C-alpha cells in the first residue's frame, strides 16, 4: 500500500485517553469513526464525527479528509446533524439561560459549512430571523443571534434576497439607534454591508433605511471595531451604487466633509490604523480619485470653445499681466507661442492624462498666479535648450501623479496603501500638482538640465514624489517641506546607499562574479569611448563677446595616435579626417584639465556661467605651453570626451556616465550569467530583422493634429 494512503494521527475525547491510529485514507470515514467509537466502547457511531482539535475546528468529511497530515490531532465530537438538532431545540427553550448558551455555541460552530448545511436544512436560519424581528431578547442573546446568523449567511447557502423587509428594517434600526449595545451595532453594520454587496435591490432598501448622518456619527466613537464596520458599510454603498446614486452619496458625504471627518476622528486621533480600516480608507481614496478618470481619458478637442478659453486664460495669465509692463506686445506674443503652441495642443492629445492636465494647469494658474507667472517667465527668458517647458512638464507631471495615485485603476480587494494626506485635502491631485510643478523647476536647475535631459528630470521628480509619499505625510505643508528637502543631491546619495546595501546583501559568489566581470566591462566602455572620439564631435567657439560665431570639429585618428581638428561650416555633419588641417600627436598631450582649471575659463574668470564651467575641458601639449580648449554641447559629450582622453593618457575613467553604464552592464551581465539555461538552445547568430511593413498607415501624425 502506498505510503501516502496511511496517515498517523491522534484522536482525543474529553475524559478518555487519546487513541493513536493509522488512518487509512481509502477506508470510508464512517468505518474509521466506528473503529474509534469501538476503542472507547461508545454506542451509536452515527452520532459522532471527527473534527480538528486545534486552530479552526472544522469537521472532517469525505471531501476534505485528504487535507489531514501526519501528526494531526483530531477530536471525536457530536455529528453535525445531531449538534444542529440539539441547538435548534435549545434556541427555542423557555429558559433564557439555555437559549443564550445555545445561541453562543451556534455562533461558534456556524463557521463550519458542514454544520451550517445541517442547521439550515432544519430551517434554523428562519428561527434566527424571527428572533431579530420580534426584538424582545436581552442584548447578549441578540448579539449571539446576529453573530450566528451572519456566520450562516456567509456560506452562501441561503440568498440574502430572501430576507424580509421587516428584518432589514430591524437591522437598520439597530444601526440608527443612538443608545444600543456596541456588539449589536457592530454585527448589524456587518450584516448590512453583506446585504448591500449582494444585490442592487438590497442596496436600495438599505440606502432608504440607514440614516447616513448616524452612519457618519459611528466614525466618531472610540470603539475601533464600530468605526471599521461603519467605514466598511460606507464603502459598500459607494462601490455598489449606480452612477446617479453614487453622485448623490458623494454630494452628501462631501457636504459633511467626510475626508476631514475621517482625518480628525480616525487618522489623527489613532496611534495606528488597523489592517481592515486601512483597506477601507484605501478603497475610499481609490473610489474618490477615480471620479477624475473621465477627464483623464478625454483628449484635447481643438474645436471645443471651453477648452480654447482655458488655454487662452493660461496664456493671458502668464504673459499679459499688468505687472509685466517691461515686456513689449510682440515679445509677449512670441513667448506665448513658444510656450503653449509648441507643446499644449500636441501633448494634450495624449490620454491619459488628457484634459486632466489642462485642469491642473488652470488650477495652478488661478490659485497661485504669482508662482505660475514666475515659472513661465523665468524659463521663457532662458536659452531654448535650457528652458524647463511648463506645458510639457505639466502634462508629464499630471500623468506621473495619476500613476502614483492609481487614478483609473479599480481598488484591489487586498489593497491597504492609502495616503493620509488625501484625507486632509479636498483637491489632492491639484494641490500636489501645484507643489510638484514648482519642484520640477527647482530640480531642473539643480540638475542643470537641458531639453535632452527632460526624461531624466522627470524620473528624479517621480522618485522625489514617491519617496515622500511613502513616508505618509499627514498634511500638504508637511509633504511640501519633505519633498523640497529631498533635492537632487539627496536622491543621488540615497541611490548610492541603496546600491551599496544591495551589494552587501549579495551572496559571496555573486560578489566574486561581479569583481571578475568588471575589468572586461571597463574595457568595453574604454573601447566605446575611443570609437566615439574616432567618430568626432562638433564644437562651438565662444568669442570674447560671448557670441557663438564659429564651429570646429575634432576627431581621433583610427590608430589612436593623432587628434585632428579644424574649422568647419555650419551644415557640416562628419568631415573627412583629411580636411582637418590641425593635429596634435597623442604622445605630446601632457594633461587633461576640466572646469575652472581650463585656460579659457581662467581668461574669462567672473564671466562664465556655472553650466559653462561644468562643460569645459582642455588638453595641454608641448611642455604645457599650448592648449586645445573645448566646451561640450551637453554633459553626455563632456563625459564621453573626458573619459576617452583619460584612456589615451592611461588614466582611469571617472565620469558619472561611466559609473552609470558600468552599473547597468554589470547588472545585466550578472542576470544573464545566473539564468538557468540548461537544455535551452542558444542560437549562434542573432535572428534576422523582419522586413518593414508594406505601409505605415497605422502611424499617427501628431503634426497634423497640432495644425
TrEMBL record:
Report if keyword Cell membrane is assigned: no
Superkingdom of the organism of origin: Eukaryota
Q: Which PROSITE patterns match?
A: ELMO (PS51335), PH_DOMAIN (PS50003)
Keyword set, alphabetical order: Apoptosis, Phagocytosis, SH3-binding
Q: Which GO terms describe its biological process?
A: actin filament organization; apoptotic process; cell motility; phagocytosis
Q: Identify the InterPro entries for this entry.
A: ARM-like, ARM-type_fold, ELMO_ARM, ELMO_dom, ELMO_domain-containing, PH-like_dom_sf, PH_domain
Q: What does this protein's UniProt record list under function?
A: Involved in cytoskeletal rearrangements required for phagocytosis of apoptotic cells and cell motility. Acts in association with DOCK1 and CRK. Was initially proposed to be required in complex with DOCK1 to activate Rac Rho small GTPases. May enhance the guanine nucleotide exchange factor (GEF) activity of DOCK1.
Protein name as annotated: Engulfment and cell motility 3
Amino acid at each position: 500500500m502506498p505510503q501516502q494512503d496511511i496517515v498517523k494521527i491522534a484522536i482525543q475525547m474529553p475524559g478518555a485517553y487519546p487513541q493513536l491510529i493509522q488512518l487509512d485514507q481509502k477506508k470510508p470515514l464512517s468505518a474509521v469513526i466506528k473503529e474509534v467509537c469501538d476503542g472507547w466502547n461508545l454506542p451509536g457511531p452515527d452520532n459522532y464525527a471527527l473534527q480538528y482539535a486545534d486552530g479552526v475546528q472544522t469537521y472532517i468529511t469525505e471531501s476534505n479528509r485528504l487535507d489531514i497530515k501526519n501528526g494531526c490531532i483530531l477530536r471525536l465530537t457530536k455529528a453535525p446533524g445531531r449538534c444542529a438538532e440539539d441547538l435548534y431545540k435549545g434556541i427555542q427553550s423557555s429558559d433564557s439561560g439555555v437559549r443564550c448558551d445555545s445561541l453562543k455555541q451556534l455562533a461558534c460552530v456556524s463557521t463550519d459549512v458542514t454544520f451550517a448545511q445541517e442547521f439550515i436544512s432544519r430551517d434554523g436560519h428562519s428561527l434566527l430571523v424571527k428572533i431579530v424581528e420580534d426584538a424582545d431578547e436581552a442584548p447578549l442573546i441578540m448579539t449571539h443571534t446576529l453573530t450566528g446568523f451572519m456566520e450562516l449567511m456567509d456560506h452562501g447557502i441561503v440568498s440574502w434576497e430572501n430576507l424580509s423587509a421587516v428584518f432589514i428594517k430591524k437591522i437598520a434600526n439597530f444601526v440608527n439607534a443612538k443608545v444600543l449595545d456596541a456588539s449589536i451595532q457592530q454585527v448589524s453594520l456587518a450584516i448590512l454591508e453583506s446585504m448591500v454587496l449582494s444585490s442592487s435591490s438590497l442596496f436600495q432598501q438599505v440606502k432608504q433605511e440607514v440614516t447616513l448622518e448616524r452612519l457618519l456619527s459611528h466614525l466618531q466613537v472610540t470603539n475601533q471595531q464600530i468605526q471599521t464596520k461603519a467605514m466598511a458599510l460606507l464603502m459598500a454603498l459607494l462601490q455598489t451604487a449606480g452612477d446617479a446614486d453614487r453622485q448623490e452619496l458623494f454630494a452628501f458625504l462631501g457636504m459633511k466633509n467626510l475626508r476631514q471627518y475621517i482625518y480628525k476622528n480616525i487618522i489623527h486621533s489613532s496611534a495606528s490604523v488597523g489592517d481592515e480600516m486601512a483597506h477601507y480608507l484605501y478603497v475610499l481614496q481609490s473610489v474618490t480619485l477615480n471620479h477624475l478618470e473621465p477627464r483623464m481619458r478625454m483628449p484635447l478637442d481643438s474645436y471645443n470653445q471651453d477648452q480654447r478659453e482655458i488655454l487662452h486664460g493660461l496664456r493671458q495669465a502668464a504673459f499679459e499681466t499688468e505687472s509685466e509692463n517691461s515686456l513689449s506686445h510682440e515679445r509677449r506674443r512670441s513667448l506665448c507661442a513658444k510656450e503653449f503652441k509648441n507643446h499644449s495642443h500636441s501633448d494634450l492629445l495624449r490620454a491619459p492624462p488628457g484634459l486632466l492636465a489642462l485642469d491642473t494647469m488652470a488650477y495652478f494658474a488661478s490659485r497661485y498666479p504669482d508662482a505660475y507667472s514666475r515659472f513661465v517667465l523665468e524659463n521663457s527668458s532662458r536659452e531654448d535648450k535650457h528652458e524647463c517647458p511648463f506645458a510639457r512638464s505639466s502634462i508629464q507631471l499630471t500623468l506621473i501623479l495619476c500613476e502614483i495615485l492609481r487614478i483609473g485603476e479599480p481598488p484591489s480587494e487586498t489593497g491597504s496603501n492609502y495616503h493620509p494626506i488625501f484625507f486632509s485635502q479636498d483637491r489632492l491631485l491639484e494641490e500636489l500638482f501645484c507643489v510638484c510643478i514648482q519642484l520640477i523647476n527647482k530640480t531642473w536647475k539643480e540638475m542643470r538640465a537641458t531639453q535632452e535631459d527632460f526624461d531624466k528630470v522627470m524620473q528624479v521628480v517621480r522618485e522625489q514624489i514617491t519617496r515622500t509619499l511613502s513616508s505618509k505625510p499627514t498634511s500638504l505643508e508637511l509633504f511640501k517641506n519633505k519633498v523640497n528637502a529631498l533635492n537632487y543631491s539627496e536622491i543621488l546619495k540615497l541611490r548610492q546607499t541603496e546600491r551599496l546595501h544591495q551589494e552587501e546583501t549579495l551572496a559571496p559568489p555573486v560578489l566574486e562574479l561581479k569583481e571578475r566581470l568588471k575589468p572586461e566591462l571597463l574595457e568595453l566602455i574604454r573601447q566605446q569611448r575611443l570609437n566615439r572620439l574616432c567618430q568626432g564631435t562638433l564644437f562651438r567657439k565662444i568669442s570674447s563677446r560671448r557670441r557663438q560665431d564659429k564651429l570646429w570639429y575634432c576627431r581621433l585618428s583610427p590608430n589612436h595616435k593623432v587628434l585632428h581638428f579644424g574649422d568647419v561650416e555650419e551644415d557640416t555633419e562628419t568631415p573627412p579626417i583629411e580636411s582637418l588641417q590641425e593635429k596634435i600627436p597623442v604622445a605630446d598631450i601632457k594633461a587633461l584639465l576640466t572646469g575652472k582649471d581650463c585656460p579659457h575659463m581662467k581668461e574669462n574668470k567672473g564671466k562664465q556661467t556655472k553650466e559653462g564651467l561644468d562643460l569645459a575641458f582642455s588638453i595641454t601639449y608641448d611642455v604645457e605651453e599650448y592648449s586645445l580648449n573645448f566646451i561640450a554641447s551637453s554633459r553626455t559629450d563632456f563625459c564621453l570626451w573626458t573619459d576617452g582622453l583619460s584612456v589615451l593618457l592611461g588614466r582611469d575613467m571617472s565620469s558619472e556616465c561611466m559609473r552609470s553604464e558600468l552599473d547597468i552592464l554589470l547588472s545585466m551581465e550578472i542576470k544573464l550569467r545566473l539564468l538557468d539555461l540548461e537544455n535551452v538552445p542558444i542560437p549562434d547568430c542573432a535572428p534576422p530583422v523582419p522586413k518593414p511593413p508594406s505601409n505605415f498607415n497605422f502611424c499617427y501624425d501628431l503634426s497634423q493634429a497640432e495644425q
